[in-house]
Task: structure prediction
Amino acid sequence: MRGLNRVTLLGRLGRDPELRTSASGTSWATLSLATDRSRREGDGWVEETDWHRVKVFGRDAERSHQRLSKGSLALVEGSISYETWEDKEGVRRTSTVILADRITFVDPRRASSEPAMAQA
Result:
């Protein structure tokens, strides 16, 4: 049986997307996405924010860079991946990243003449 590695996140960008281009000409953007969740604590609820690093490639990266900014609401669909590197002291580090297959721009503040959702 094959495994399943799928993630769907709905959240707001914590900063503007960073667009880069590789030596081969492939574009990619890195997004910082915040998702909120609630958990019970005693008689009340506590709000918590999780931060996710998202990478999107190609035309979707360019569109994300053009259309999204800090505070934008986005729906991200993709998979979880891990990046490993050595820091300046030679210590091995690992970071979790979401590799986006699809991004939907969700902006309820748009004028009614424009669609509220557009796909990257």
Observations:
- Residues 7-37+47-111 form a domain with the OB fold (Dihydrolipoamide Acetyltransferase, E2P) fold (CATH 2.40.50.140).
- The longest strand covers residues 27-41.
